Predict the structure.
Amino acid sequence: MTPNSAEKFRGRIDPIKDKIPGHVLKVIEEELKKLQLLETSSSEFDVTCNYLDWLTVLPWGNFRCAICFMLMS
């Protein structure tokens, strides 16, 4: 991941920001701030990117996809 990773994640959440629960949005914002302070070579940078990747690809507000995920588990 590059230092522009934060922009990539912001690009994912901006269109669906109103569908993401407030407590989750708060966590995402905190992790984005942390990401901008971390060195790209640190292992925590990779962990934070992976966490943000999962948080930003979940189908927030799309209940049909959520049901599919539960059935596939």
The helical segments are 5-13, 22-37, 43-57, 63-72. The mean pLDDT is 86. The two ends are 29 Å apart (CA to CA).
